[in-house]
Every structure is written in C-alpha cells, then in structure tokens.
Design a protein that fits this description.
Blueprint lengths: L6 E10 L2 E11 L4 E5 L6 H8 L7 E6 L2 E2 L5 H7 L1 E3 L12 H11 L7 H7 L15 H13 L5 E5 L7 H16 L3 E5 L3 H5 L5 E5 L2 E6 L1 H6 L1 H9 L1
Parallel strand pairs: 3-8, 3-9, 6-7, 7-8
Antiparallel strand pairs: 1-2, 1-4, 4-5, 9-10
Helix pairs in contact: 3-5
The protein binds adenosine-5'-triphosphate and magnesium ion.
Length: 235
C-alpha cells in the first residue's frame, strides 16, 4: 500500500437548506486500500459518495485527489480523472441491452480499462449481455452498475451498498471481486450495512452518525465503543 493518499477529505460540510447532511467529515484513502463507511440510515454515507463523485458540491471543506484540490469539479471531470461510483439504487438504461449500457459508459471513458467483454465476464453477466437491462433482477443490476463504473477506468471506486439483497454465496463472490479490484490498485470506499461483509474485506472502517465521523478503526473495536453502540441501539 502506498503512503501517499489518493483521496483526502478535509472537514466537508454538505447542507440541504439548513440541514447538515455532512457536518465536517475528514478521511483519507490510499491506492489499493479498502475503507468501510458504515452508520445508521440517514447518517450521510451516500451524501459523502455524492460529494466525492462530484454530484453534490460541498458548502465547506476540501476534496483532494492525487494531491490536487478538486472540491468543486463536475461529475464528468471527476469521472475523466478516475473517480466513479456505484449507485445505492442502480438506474441502467432499461430498454438497452446490458452490453449497450457498457458501450455508453465506454464512449464516455477517457482512461484505460479492461475490454467490455472482460468486464462482463468479471461481473458474471456474459450470458445476459444481449438482454435488456430492465429484465435483470436487482442484484444483477447492481453487478451491471459495477461494470458500468469500471468501464470508465476508475482509480477510486465508491461503492454504495452493493451487497444488499445478495445471498450468502453471491456475497462471497462479490467479496472476491472487490478484493481483486483493490489488489489491482484501485482505492475503494465501501458503504455497506452488512458488517460481516465489510469485516471480510477490511480492518479499517469509519462509523458515521448524523453527518459526523464518530469512530475510526476495526469493527471489533467499533463494537466495543459506547458511542457506536448507542447509535446502533438507538437507531
Ligand atoms: N438531495 C437531498 N435533499 C435533501 N435532503 C437530503 C438529500 N440527500 C440526502 N438528504 C438527507 O441527508 C441525510 C443523509 O442522507 P444519506 O442518503 O447520505 O444517508 P445514508 O447514510 O446513505 O442512509 P442510508 O443508509 O439509508 O442509505 C438524510 O437525512 C437525508 O434525508
Ligand atoms: Mg445511502
């Protein structure tokens, strides 16, 4: 693992009206590293991804990528630089085929990446390549969404609850895929409710509550932390 972080957030504030969905979030992530981001519903995990990916612009704080300040860059610029994400609720072009969805992402890509057929194979959707994306079930749509993000050649991948709804054997396969991506050097921010899944992938998690980081460390220590416990039991 490199000691130069790829991504640094400094005291990010994201408001919706007067409400602070992110209230001073700081974190850093290095190439090849997996950082788990957990917390109860509404704690700001997806908002954090949306800020990093350029979908939302923060009111305060800075985002650094490869040492450059990129805080208010557009979504497109972020993608071209190597930041992409999966969506908590994937929205593929439903009337296009699985392959066509990837071709669109590929045309938009400016970075080297695996050939589309390899990506289809990687996510296990080769047999579905000619089917309409709308005909896929929700876990297959999540896999397509992962392939779509990978088709832009990210060096930073933000994953928003890819494991929800998967059965145990699918979870194992998904964990292997994420490990493989990290081993290839991609930095991964993993938002996930399934703590066992996170625990199989990384020892470093940040626990959020109400837009703030309340804990950083491994899940075992998190489970012993009174504030973390209060938040989970209270929620
Ligand atoms: N576009 C928006 N407009 C207004 N409020 C928003 C918007 N997006 C998020 N919020 C609010 O910000 C807070 C954090 O939402 P966010 O989606 O980031 O939570 P989360 O941690 O991802 O939750 P979950 O685990 O349910 O996905 C919530 O109170 C949510 O209602
Ligand atoms: Mg969310």
């Amino acid at each position: 693992m490199s000691h130069n972080p790829l991504l640094v957030l400094e005291k990010i504030v994201k408001q919706f009206g007067q409400f602070r969905a992110l209230d001073g979030v700081s974190l850093s992530l290095s190439p090849g590293e997996i950082l788990g981001l957990v917390g109860p519903n509404g704690s700001g995990k997806t908002t954090c991804i949306n800020v990093i990916a350029g979908l939302y612009r923060p009111e305060e704080g800075s985002v650094f990528f490869n040492g450059n300040k990129i805080t208010k860059y557009s979504l497109t610029k972020m993608a071209h630089m190597g930041i992409n994400r999966t969506f908590q609720v994937p929205k593929p072009f439903k009337s296009l085929t699985v392959r066509e969805n990837l071709i669109i992402a590929d045309q938009y890509a400016k970075r080297p990446h695996q050939p589309l057929e390899e990506l289809l194979d990687f996510v296990g959707l080769t047999a579905y390549a000619s089917r309409e994306a709308g005909s896929l079930n929700s876990s297959q749509q999540k896999l397509l969404d992962l392939a779509r993000a990978l088709a832009t050649g990210p060096s930073l991948l933000l994953i928003d609850e890819l494991a929800a709804g998967l059965n145990p054997s699918e979870l194992d396969k998904m964990a292997e895929k994420i490990k493989h991506l990290a081993e290839s050097g991609i930095a991964i921010l993993l938002v996930e409710h399934l703590l066992g899944f996170i625990n199989s992938l990384t020892k470093r998690v940040i626990v959020m509550n109400a837009g703030k980081e309340i804990f950083e460390g491994d899940l075992e220590s998190a489970a012993k932390n009174p504030e973390v416990n209060a938040v989970y039991l209270g929620g």
